[in-house]
Structures are given as C-alpha cells and as structure tokens.
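Table S2 (text version). Query chain:
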Amino acid sequence: MTPVRAAICDGAPDPEDAGRRFDRIAAAAEEAGIRLDLEEADSRELLGLACRNAPYLATLLARDPARLSRVARDPYLRRQKPAWVMGRELAGRTDLADDLPAALRRYRADEMVRLGARELGLGSPIEVGAELAHLADVCLDAAIAHHQAELSAQHGPPIVRGDDGSQRAAELAVIGMGKLGGEELNFASDIDVIYVYSSDQGSAGTYSLHEFMSKLCERVTACLSEVTEEDLVFRVDLRLRPEGSRGAIANSLPSLERYYETWGRPWERQAWLKARAAAGSRALGAEVLATLEPFVHPRATSVSVVADVRDLNRRIKAELVRDGVDSGFDVKNGRGGIREIEFFAQALQLIHAGHRPALRTRSTLGALDQLLFAGIISDSERAALADAYRALRHIEHLLQLDTGRQTQRMPRDRAALEVLARRLGHDGADALLAALAGHTGAVARLFATLGEEEEGPPAEVVALLGGDHAGDDEERAILARLGLRDPEQAQRHLERARRRVTSPFGRAAEGARARVAPLLLADVLESPDPDQALAYLAELAHRRGAWTTLWRMMDENPELRRLIASLFGSSDYMSKQFIDHPELGDALLAAGRARARRSVAELDDMVAARLAEIPAGDDEERWNALAELKNGQMLRIGLADIAGELGPEEVCAELSAVAEVCLARGFELVHSALAERHGEARGEDGAPVGLAVLALGKLGGRELGYASDLDVLFVYAAEGESDGERPLPNVEYMSRLAQRLMGALHTMHPGGRLYELDTRLRPSGSKGLLVSSLAGWTRYHQESARLWERQALTRLRPVAGDAALGARAAEVASAFAYAGVAGGEPAAAELAAAMTAMRDKIERETAGAASPVDLKAGRGGIIDIEFASQYLQLVLGPDQPELRTPSTLEALRAAVRLVPDLAGHCALLADAYLYLRRIEHRIRIVHDASAQRLPADAVELDKLARRLGLADGSALDAAYRRWTGEVRRAYDAVLAWRK
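Corresponding structure-token output:
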C-alpha cells in the first residue's frame, strides 16, 4: 500500500492528516480481515478523495472498510441516482426488518461516502443536494412503512369513516420544507418536515386517528433522529409545523387548512414556497399542496412583502452574533450568503407567482431561471446569484465533509483556512477570501435592490447608443471592457442597429423608443452572449415594421425587453424565429408568463378557439393560424427548456404534442377541401372509407426534438371510389389527401412553416406508394418486411385521421412486431446478431470511425439505446405487455422492473438517453445546428458546455465520452443477454 499512500499524500491539502486517515482505514481493514482493493481505479480515487479532502468520509470508511469497495462498485458513483433506485436498494437490505435503525444508518453512511465523492469532483453540488434530499425521502418512507405496520398490528389499522358510512385507509404525508422541499439538502442538514394525515373522522382500534398518527410520527422522528453508535440518519426539525414547537406533531388536512386560513403569517407563506410531498402518501401530499395553494400564491399580494422578507433576514442575522464574538463568516446566513440568494428569489416569487404559475418552482436555481425567463431579472443578475449560490453551496458542503457536523462557518484559524482553500482548488487562503468576497459582495448588492425601481442604463451604454465617442478606437475599447469578444464586429453591428434605432419612427413610438432603447442595449450587453445578442439586435432593427409595435410593448412590459435580450443571447434557434416573425412579441411575452406544460387536449382547445374566429372558407388564414400557434408554442417550450423547468423527456413530450395537434387539425383542413371537390371516399359496399395517419420514429415515441421531421405513413381502409360529382378511386383520393397534407405543412405561410413529413418508412420505402390499403399494408408485413421495419413498428401509434382505422392498424403492427421471437424464430441470439450488424453498419456509414462525437449514430449514441430497447421489446414483448410501448424510455423502465439481470444496464441506458437528448436540445437551441454532433470549434463547445451547466468544453467532452462508453458496455450486455 506504500505507493498508494504516497500518491494520496503527495500534494494533499494537509499531507500529514491524509496519511493518518489512510493508516486508520488500512488498520481497520486489517483488523476486520478485509482486503482493500486498491488495484481498482475507482477504489483508489474514492480513497484518495476521502483522505485528502473529506475527513468525515475517511471516518465512515474506517468504521466499515468494506464500504470502500461497495461504494466504488456503485454504478451511480459518477451519475445521479434516482430516488426509486435508492428505495429499491434500501428495501433490499437484509437487516431492514430486524434492525431498522441500524439498516438506515448503514445505508445512509454508504450514500454519504458516494455523495461526498461526487461533491469532490465526480458530480456537482446541485445534483448532490437533490440526491441527499431523495435519500431523506426514502429513509422517511422506510420508517413510516415499518412503524405503521407495527402500530397497526398492535392497535388496528387507521380507518377514515365518512358521513355516508364509507371507509378508507387513513394516510400520512410528509411535506418536505426548506432544503428538503427544494431538493437542496446538504451533508449535515436537518430535514424540515410537516406531518399531515387524512382526517380526524375515524379510528385505529381504540386510538383516535390523531393519537395513532401522533404516535406514528413520534416513532418515525425518533427512528431517524436518535444518535446511536452508528450516528444518526437525519435530524428531523418540526418547528415549521402549525404553532411551531407548541403545536401538535401531526395535523389532519382540515385542521391544517383552518390554521393557515386563520393564522398563517407572512414567513409561513414564504416557507411553503419550497413545500414538496417528500414521503408517505404522495397523493395526500399533492392534495395538501393543492389545498394550500391559495394561501401560498394569492392573486393579490401585500405591498409589505419585501419588507417582511428583509425583516426576517435581519432577525436571522441578529442571531449570528452572540456575546459580540465573531466566530467566522457564515456562508449561509452571513451578508451576501446563501440565505440572501434564497430570499431574493423568494421575495420575487411572493410578488409575482400568484398570477404567474411558471414561477412556482421550489429550487433556488430553478426560481432564478424562471425569473430570468419571465423578464423579472436580467441575465447578469441571474448569473451573479447562480454562480454565488453554486460556489457557496460547495464551500458549505466541504465544511460539513470535514467533521460531519452541521456548520456553515468559515474557519478563523489561518492554517485551517489554508487547508480549506486548497481543498476548494484555490492557491491559498487569500485567493479563497477574495473569491468569497466577490460572490458575497455581488449578492449583497443585489439583495439591497429588492423593492427598488429599475436603475437607468450605465452612462457608457447611453454613449454607445448615441455614438458619442472621440473615435472608433475608444468605442472598441469600451465594447471590449463590456465583455464583447470581437469588438470590431460588435462595433459594426452596433452601428447598424444605431442607424435604425435612433432614426424617427413616428410620433407614437418616439417617447417609448427614447426610454427603452438604452435599456434594451444594456440588457443585450449583459446577456449570456453579448456578441450574438448584438448581432440579432442589429438584424431585428432592420426588419421593416418590426419596431413600432415592439417599442410600445417593451415600454409597457419591461419583462419583454429583458426576454428579447435573453433570447438573443441564449438561442440562435429561437432568435431566428423571433426575427423572422417579430409579431411574436405577444407570444414571447405570453411564453414568459405561461405554464410550461400543455396537454394535447389543451393545445387542441386553443387551436379550435382560434380557428372558430376565422370566417368559413378562408383556409389560408387557418393554415397561418396553425403556423402562429406552432411558433408561439415553440417559444414557450424553448424558454421553459432553457430555464430548466422542462427536463429533456418533457421537452420531447411537449414538442410531440404540438406536432400532433398541428397534424390532426391540418388533416381536417385538407380533407374538408378535398371532400368539397370529390366527395367522401367509399368502399365497394358503399361504407365510408377513412385514412389514418400513423406516427413512427420520434413522433411515435413522443420523443421529438426541436427541428425533427415527422415520420409518418398513411393507411386507408379499403378500395372503392369517392361519391362526389368528380369521383376518384380511393387510392388516388387518399394519395391526393396525403400529398396535400404534406405540401400544406411544408409551405411557408405568413406565420411560418409547420413541419416536414418523412414517409420513407412506408412499405418499399421511397419506391413504394405513398398510401397503402390496410389489407395491402398487412400483407406486406407478413410477406416482405425486413428486421428494421419490424423495429420501426414498435414505435407506431395513430395521430390523425380516422381514429378507428388507426387503432386497427396499430393492432396489426403490434401483432406483427411482437410475434415469433419468443421461442426462437428468429431466435434471440440471431436477432441480436442481425441488430448488431445493422447497428455497426449505421455507425460506419453515418457516424464514421473518426467521428465519435455523433450523438445519434456514434459509438454509445442514441441508436445504441434505441436498439437495446427494441431488442428487449421484440424478445420479451410477446409475453410482457408492459414492454409494448412506442416510448424508448417507458420500455427501458419496464425492463428495469421485468428483467432483474439487466436492471442496472437498462437504468443506465434510460439515464443516458435523457442526457444525450438534453445535449441534442441544447445544440439546436444554442447553435441552431444539426443536433447530432458536438461543435468542433472550441469556443462554440465552451458555449454549449456552459448552457449545460458545465465549466467548459473539455468537461463536456469528458462527460460525453464517459457516458457513451458506459452506453456501449450496457448495449453489449443487453444484446448478449440471451446468447
């Protein structure tokens, strides 16, 4: 072990301490008869991180040396572990039933070591905070299940009895508050909870429901909070419950509602901003949150909101000073600390979220993102607060990983401060203190602006707009000082915008222009990419007719001005949309205020209402309305995506819903027009004959990207002809219907183009007929279809046209896709070989051996994941209906449950799919480029990395290669499963 020890100590922040901790772990392992596996790279790295940078983790490893190999082998050492995985792992602990407290503490210790390593470089503080919160959730769930079963066995199950004599099981919900609710827990956090049960009407044997639930909550609290020789699980803090420490430990939902209706105070409303159904009955938890929503988010807010938040902040700070002794800077509660960032975001949520549901997010960074894309704060404000939050949370975590104790105070001892600085990656204490002062100073200045009117633009910006400089050199120097990467190019864009912006536009806009123009330029120069934003500003300025209305709108709605600047500095894709259609100002403003999520039914209602306003026969305006709806919804989805409110899976679902509605309504328009000329299609028996539009590929799986084509095929019911004055054979009638739909969706309408339909997945591909009869389509798949077509059918679903016919076609597709593999024709091994050969061919021909960064077709890319999913569907689908889904993610998640041997691999593939799709979305939004390849240019790669929350392009490249390497290994394991 000497070389390993030397490697750990060499260059450590405190070499002597690192050596001592290594020796203690080695001695404990020898005493326990355990051989430390130091030949394995992850074990060495984990041991080094603990001994060098996290004494508390080293203590946990010395307490149980076998923990080192357990944690090093954890497949989630380098990626975020979902809560359901934690729950499954905890349930699998053999000592859970016999000694619940010990089992919880041992599992928690394992997870602390894993999460500590992720904090120290294998993850991020934000991911770690969420995982710690989920760890608390599953421990609460386990304690509730154990003690409720125990109490029910002793006293009888808790039953709610209705006035009508009905009975149902009483439920308990744990509402997570504070950092638990916001999924921002730290390593030594208390968990703030409020216990809520269903009702007081009922009993549990001789106990009232209140007595039973109170006893249950006392046991759960003690189970987690009591300190044993193996530490505790989490300290449970109940002071946020109604009436605080004087109140009942648990409240029924009706009593909770009465309390907040009658006695709820401003600080309690602020606390409930972070409330989350964390454990117990999630359904009851959701009911609690819905019931209290009018209290938390009233439509009208008091003018004293900001004053209330400031007062609470002052009172917290007053508690920091005891007996006049300065015990070190508190990164949480000190001036410019974490608390002020949280309170800044919460104050603005309290003011605006009552009438802007999009702002109702629990996490601090999520709230800052939403405030930015609602136009309430600027990008520079968001960036300063978010950067400070990440830095301060990392410091807080390392302070707690030093001793395992709850502390947020910086050490006053110089030597200890030097060690902390080196653990944080700084050259020394002075560098750390300077970086800390930069962050806290920025936070304190912004916190002090709460409630103040918006400041005017800086004098330099006003001078830039007017061209009031001694010469070009001075102007370029100012632009460089303001952060422009290419001052010469920026100067050209500025001059172009200046000529248009400062020219007269008529009396109506003149006052608005004078007020808004310098503020808009200031916002552009503070955007995430001011070079890009200034270029788009210049482009917009030269679009005729764009400005007069926009000046008024930006003057009346300052958030629109900030939104435009943020959009121009964040997204090539959406900026181009907006510039091509500046009439989308209303849609952009609505998108910043809208809920992020829309169902197909909601979208269809919106379309129906808009189409109803258009006079009959004006099909051109109807198509234009569809295009405007699509563009407005793309803005909504894109803003929510950039702001982090929609995850990659939700982005895909939202984009798919918009496409589905446009397809369905577009089909109705072309069908109606065709029927006027040629009547309705009829079968040879005179019965009506419909056409079904069947989605395949990413539309079929509800997995669309921002610029995806729509893979579809057309199937009609039967041969015959239409019944109009100019009848057509059904094949010709349906062909015209399909062609007109494709043409109308592709046409550039005044409101923009809708979609490109791709029909190459039809029988015989591009050589085959555009439409097929159901009988002919069925016969083709029975006699001629190839393996790739069978794979494609796993993602088929009807999306437009004749719904009954679509359902029949889906049954045919399912019967063909899921027949004949189980049992051996072709055998699973032959299927795996054929799919692998096809996969290898795609990789060679599409990605190329020299292009490993192709997200879709490259090694370990999205096609690997889709093929693995489809292999399991084809092999197991005949016997497992859960696998018969068009969704890649749903199929993989079902496989996790159904195939224990492959559960870990399938879970990884599902996580990797979301990771790669998120990169795809960002490439399209940020660069408006093909979403398949990472940018080759280093500057563009850095830009993309920052939009993904990573430090730079090298970090993105390393993460991408790690993920895709793991995907290829999982793919190989899945396709080798039945060999």
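Notes on Table S2: Confidence is low (pLDDT under 50) at residues 504-509. The longest strand covers residues 191-197.
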